[in-house]
């Protein structure tokens, strides 16, 4: 089960990054171009939110079926924090990505309450961009692409 969930989590991450990048670029371009917020923009923001939440759920499942979780019992929190790879997989990656998904969710929720197109695009651009940067910062690139 671990292997299957890990593969799904890895491949779904590509979708998350692509969709999130599209939403951010769309919001930035339309914000600076003084474009009108239309139903397609809403769909992009919503689809991005859904895809990131699905990735979060897959990640939570992966976290609890991972054999790495046993390292807490073997090494303790201090031992996990001393080992860079264990710290990345057990602490940094889950925590930072949870914060990223929370920021994306906040941006989506706040943008719905705005009345002008510019303010809607601005909120999506800010919150989704921060979420994207956070996600990119905690991807274990050497393991993911290697």
Quick rundown:
This is 50S ribosomal protein L27. The protein is mainly alpha-helical and 146 residues long.
Q: Count the DSSP helices.
A: 6
Task: Return Rg in Å.
Answer: 17 Å
In sequence order, what are the helices and strands, one letter per element?
A: HHHHHH
How confident overall, as mean pLDDT? 93
* Structural class computed from helices and strand pairing: mainly alpha
Structural description of this entry:
It is built from six helices and no strands. The protein is 86% helix and 0% strand. Helix 3 crosses helix 4. The protein has one domain (2-144). It is an all-alpha fold and 146 residues long. The mean pLDDT is 93. This is 50S ribosomal protein L27. Keywords: Membrane, Transmembrane, Transmembrane helix. The chain crosses the membrane at residues 12-33, 45-66, 86-109, 121-141.
């Amino acid at each position: 089960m671990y292997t299957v969930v890990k593969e799904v989590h890895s491949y779904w991450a590509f979708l998350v990054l692509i969709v999130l990048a599209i939403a951010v670029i769309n919001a930035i371009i339309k914000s600076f171009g003084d474009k009108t917020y239309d139903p397609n923009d809403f769909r992009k923001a919503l689809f991005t939110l859904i895809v990131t939440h699905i990735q979060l759920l897959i990640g939570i499942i992966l976290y609890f079926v991972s054999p790495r979780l046993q390292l807490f019992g073997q090494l303790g929190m201090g031992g996990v924090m001393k080992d860079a790879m264990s710290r990345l997989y057990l602490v940094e990656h889950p925590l930072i990505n949870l914060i990223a998904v929370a920021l994306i969710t906040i941006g989506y929720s706040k943008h719905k309450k705005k009345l002008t197109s510019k303010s809607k695009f601005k909120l999506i651009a800010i919150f989704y961009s921060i979420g994207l940067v956070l996600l990119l910062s905690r991807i274990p690139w050497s393991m993911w692409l290697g």
